Amino acid sequence: MSRALVTSTPTPEDEQRLIDSLPTGLFIGGEWRAASDGGTFDVLDPSTGLVLTSIASATPADGAAALDAAADAQRSWGRTAPRERAEILRRAFEAVTERADDFALLMTLEMGKPLAEARGEVAYGAEFLRWFSEETARIAGRFAMAPDGNSRLLVMKRPVGPSLFITPWNFPLAMATRKIAPAIAAGCTMVLKPAALTPLTALLFTQALAEAGLPAGVLNVIQTTSAGAVTGPLIQDPRLRKLSFTGSTEVGRRLIADAAHQVLRVSMELGGNAPLLVFDDADLDKAVDGAMLAKMRNGGEACTAANRILVQQGVAAEFSRRLVERMAAHTVARGTDPASKTGPLVDEGTRDKVHELVTSAVEAGATLALGGRAVPGAGYFYEPTVLTDVPGGSRILNEEIFGPVAPIVTFETEEQGIRLANATEYGLVAYAFTRDLNRGLRLAEELEVGMFGLNTGIVSNPAAPFGGVKQSGTGREGGIEGIEEYLETRYVGIADPYAV
Ligand code: NAP
């Protein structure tokens, strides 16, 4: 792949050089092209509000062309040798790793996260390429004699077929590789619509995949400012066989309804409202570290973010004191500043919503222990904020905050803690800190979630199945389960070979 352009301590000149090197078109049928109506849109730096660059904005006609290319490529791509697909993924892993500083800087520029976190996402996102390159050669079926001995049962795995991916802005690389890598492994062709706020990382990644040898038409990329108008017709097109969406529950619900028309297979990675429980017997140092990680990773703009911090009565005052101390020491600055621990929120609307949730919690009776204001000046920065004694029923306990705000609620018994934790329509992830292993196992069984972190503030791992229950979605990404989302099971009944 093209050589790395920037170093780990990028200068403003590096930023410009990287931006100037990016493709700006749509990627359809193996070629970069302008939008059919010549339309473009601006991508902004949320730490300044200034324009980084301007890129093509797909029209419905471009969407149709992308699905044409994916449908045309499906048959030959589905028949490639697994090893060939594995090696493309492996080369892509190496290319992304080699250009880790470029990818990290680009994510910092378009999304705002600090460079250190962006580097973490590059490693995490790239690992899906390596993991699924290793899984490619392990796709298998089974063979059995029917119980009555009168026939043979062959069960085989086939690629699902052309798939549409719609991804959010908060993890611009990893949310794409979590879908693209298993789809390549399984032999599916794709159309990707990245978030309009952060499309640049997807463009650089697409370039890396093309250079790694991905055949024309296998991946088509249609960034646009008209998400519904461009993807809607594709979801109704009988050539499309799969929709994988990561984003809000609100949009996910609508897409599931749209997908019902042609009974499309769907994977939905939707919103979260994670509880983080701290019990009286917890190691408080570990609990505070875990809460900081679960709350402040990605500036709180994560579906896995601890949205409600539930602390048992006996340690509530001490835990809150320590959390306030740690949050107060958290430096808010542009992500390229080496001191930055939290960058800006992604846009003004996101910051306004965070502030609205804080204000309504305080009006409902919560105590503002730290922060609670937008940082004045350019960019969409918000102060690390801690709320204590948040009354049950507050909006902030029911909606995704998506910002650096930690609401603390106290509880008395384990039973009450579990009840509070489960009192949400979401079910993505929960965290708990306790020294009692039996309690940990009880929680693992009682909490209504797809993922549970026991004495840890992070669960994301490419080798593990990521996903939720309830209104956090359906399907799993990563792990040995991740490839199943892109495989169909076909059963072949075979007559008894002795009955001839
Ligand atoms: P969003 O508003 O739902 O948007 C997600 C994607 O859907 C974007 O690409 C968006 O395009 C597109 N979209 C919006 N309306 C659409 C429509 N009518 N038809 C087709 N596509 C449409 O979510 P977001 O604000 O980008 O991301 C934050 C949400 O994602 C949070 O709720 C978070 O919890 C969730 N999330 C979940 C996971 C998980 O794995 N469970 C991971 C990360 C994030 P535009 O960019 O043009 O709006």
Can you put this structure into words, describing what you see?
Belongs to the aldehyde dehydrogenase family. InterPro entries: Ald_DH/histidinol_DH, Ald_DH_C, Ald_DH_CS_GLU, Ald_DH_N, Aldehyde_DH_dom, Aldehyde_DH_Superfamily. The protein has 500 residues and is α/β, with parallel strands linked by helices. It has 15 helices and 22 strands. The chain has two domains: 12-270 and 474-488, Aldehyde Dehydrogenase, Chain A, domain 1 (3-Layer(aba) Sandwich); 274-461, Aldehyde Dehydrogenase, Chain A, domain 2, CATH 3.40.309. The protein has helices spanning 12-21, 60-78, 82-98, 100-111, 115-136, 174-186, 200-211, 227-235, 249-259, 284-296, 313-328, 348-363, 395-398, 414-422, 437-446; strands at 26-28, 31-33, 40-45, 50-56, 142-145, 151-159, 163-166, 190-193, 219-221, 242-246, 265-269, 274-278, 306-312, 367-370, 385-388, 405-411, 426-427, 429-433, 451-454, 469-470, 473-474, 487-495. The strands form six sheets. The chain has a seven-stranded mixed β-sheet with strand order 14-15-16-13-12-18-19, sandwiched between helices. Strands 9-8-7-10-11-21 form a six-stranded mixed β-sheet, with helices on both faces. Helix 3 (82-98) packs antiparallel against helix 5 (115-136), helix 4 (100-111) crosses helix 5 and helix 10 (284-296) packs across helix 11 (313-328). The longest helix has 22 residues, at 115-136. It binds NADP nicotinamide-adenine-dinucleotide phosphate.
